[in-house]
Structure formats: C-alpha cells, structure tokens
What we know:
This protein is α+β, with helices and mostly antiparallel strands. It contains 9 helices and 7 strands; from the N terminus they run ααααβαββαβαββαβα.
Amino acid sequence: MHRKILNSFFALFLIGAVSCSDLHNTQKTAVLESAKQVEIKEDLVAEDPEMVAFIMPYKQQMDSIMNEVIGYSDEDMGSKTPDSKLPQFVLEVIRKQAEKVTGEKIDLAMVNLGGLRSPIYKGPVTVGNIYSTFPFENALTIVTIKGRAIKDLYKLVDDRKRLAVTRLDNIDDKKEYRLATIDYLVDGNDNASMLGSSFNREDTGIMLRDLIIDYYRSNNKK
C-alpha cells in the first residue's frame, strides 16, 4: 500500500463494528459522518500487511454500500440559485416524503442552498452520490406556520437567494400552513428566524439524505 493519509479507514472500522445493513438507522448514519472526520496517519498503516488485511473487508463492505445504484437522474441538477433544478427537486421530494412519514398534507417545503454540496448528474445515482450532495446531519422537521410568516420567508429568499421555498398562490396571512424543512433552519440558522415563532414543531429525527435515498429507491427506474 502506498504511504498516505487514510481518512476513511477508521470510518470503515466503525461501520464494520455496528453493521452496515441498514442505512436508514440514523444512529449508524451519525457514526459514519463522525468517523469520516478521523484521520489515521501514514505511519500507522504504511506498508503494514496486517493492517491492510484488517481494513480490506470493511473497505469492500463500504464500497458495496456506497456504490449501490438507487435510481437515475434524467438531467444534471445544480444549485446555484433557489430556482435551480436541484433545490426545486429537493423541495418536492421533502414535501412528498414528509407526507409519507406523517400521513398528513404538507403545504410547502424549504431548504438552504448551502446544504446542497454537490450536483446530482444525469445517469445512475448511487448512495455515495447522495452522501456527497447531503453530507450534513440535517433532519426532517415539520412546523405549522402562519401565512404572514410565509410571505416573510419569500421576501428573505428574494433578498438573499440562499433559501429555496415552495411558492404558493393566494396566501392567507392568518391561515395555518404545514411546512417541511430541516431542523437547522427551524433553529433559526440562515436568517430563518421567523420559524422560531412557529408552533406544533415536529422533529422526526429522519436525516434529509435518508429521505432522498428512500425516494430514489421507491421510484427506481432507468
């Protein structure tokens, strides 16, 4: 083995310890993301056949998971602006998946462009692609919000162009709407402070990436 920093091998070890059979288990997902930050320096593994032999089964197991094709994209999708294809796709997936999770009608969705870290390209989509695009521990949160606050969100989107929100017509200032988004935004980040006054907050604990993976698997077609 060449001498180099092996950023992912410790992650492979941890995943082997907890088993990789269920990517929808959020605890295992958290272990994966935390372990990615750990480095094993070259002097610990350089030219060590025993270490290579120990690591290889976990690497093969990880490769088989991350290389799994879960669906196909008909086009390249980027996220330069809120109206770009990727954020608009994610908005619709969040809304539909939130309805699937809750069994209730969801009126709109919101996502921050900063949380979409890489495009999804035309062609096969793998689990690894989804982890690259959605690397953060952002979980689905559903809130009840008044129409007036939605108009404030629209103004924020138009001013900063860093948030994407489903556009609704004929908004009633006093009416209550159900909004699906991520806990990061409900906590007030990215200047989404108006969500702090929402009520009936429901933290599902389901990672955004897992919603996307489930959506692709459920609609897997070439």
